[in-house]
Design goal:
By secondary structure, the protein is mainly alpha-helical. It has helices at 3-27, 34-46, 51-58, 62-74, 96-117, 122-147; strands at residues 49-50, 78-82, 90-94. It folds into 2 domains: 3-117, Winged helix-like DNA-binding domain superfamily/Winged helix DNA-binding domain (Arc Repressor Mutant, subunit A, Orthogonal Bundle); 121-148. InterPro entries: HTH_MarR-typ, WH-like_DNA-bd_sf, WH_DNA-bd_sf.
Amino acid sequence: MKQTNIFKLIHAIEQMNNENIIQFTKEFHYPLGISPILVLAELQTKGPQKQVELADTIGYTKGAMTHIATKLVHLELIEKTYDESDKRAVQLEITTKGSKALKEAQAIGKKVFIELFEVLSEEEIEQYLNIQEKLMKGIQARKNKNKF
């Protein structure tokens, strides 16, 4: 593939992502971006976790995770829980309000993507899906290669 086409593709992906983020932000009732929502989803899926473990799992720095956690605690979407045997051991846990916010975010995200893809025919969706699967296999192969 020509270098020019790669840059066109990158630009098109960035434009599409930006438009999706803008649309999502207009509809979501909380002052949150995607990173805090990913944290909520991780806590919803795997339960309470230490902040450091959560940062490692999602791939954020400790500083970024501290900022996200502080914001989510302030909004009462997560809470800090303490181990009775070791008060220094703090875990983050999603609250009921956090679960509701996550559910809302997921519904809006789904709506935004459905609107995005409704311009494609079934054949185009199938082609796009095949391309995405191929890209994901390439990502997994690089990850596996870098493990050794």
